[in-house]
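Re: the request from the purification team.
They wanted to know what the chain is likely to look like in 3D before they choose a buffer screen. I agreed to run a prediction and write the result into the notebook, where they can find it.
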Amino acid sequence: MQEPALPPISPAESLIVYPSQFPIKVMGLKVEGLVHAITVIAHAFDPAFDASTIELRESKGGKYLGVTITITATSREQLDELYRTLSTHPMVKVVL
């Protein structure tokens, strides 16, 4: 089932000024390939994405990994689709 599209927001109504640097926190089980998968998705939505800016934070018990990526946001549509893509990835548990 596809989620309904959100209504368009005019630039005057948006809280984000495009383009801008936009951090996104992604959490998943700490498994091999998680960071690579997130990096590939980030590059798909922001070809200039710099993987050296990725921040990692392990959970207290070491079972989960928080991965913060900072992309260049160019539109609400780009961000919505990026969130959808990350959220539906099988290795990802939460996207903030």
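For the purification team: The chain has one domain: 20-95.
Please add any questions underneath this entry.
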